[in-house]
Amino acid sequence: MNENNKSGFSAELALLERRIEELLVANEALKEENRALRQRQESLAAERSTFAQRNDQVRARVEAMIGRLKTMEHTA
Length: 76
Fold this sequence. Notes:
Elements: H1 3-75
């Protein structure tokens, strides 16, 4: 292998190493973003469950009030 080929190969190897490092950094950033998104999704799912439960409680209370009002209306 002559000197020009060696320097060309070294330059390509250095470029490849730099690109691999960039990909590793990007991969770590994506892993962190994915972890954060999963955590946010879990949080939103828990919040949604809480709101659904509250909604069911309010619905039950409103239905009970309507039932009492209908009873009062029929007895009056």
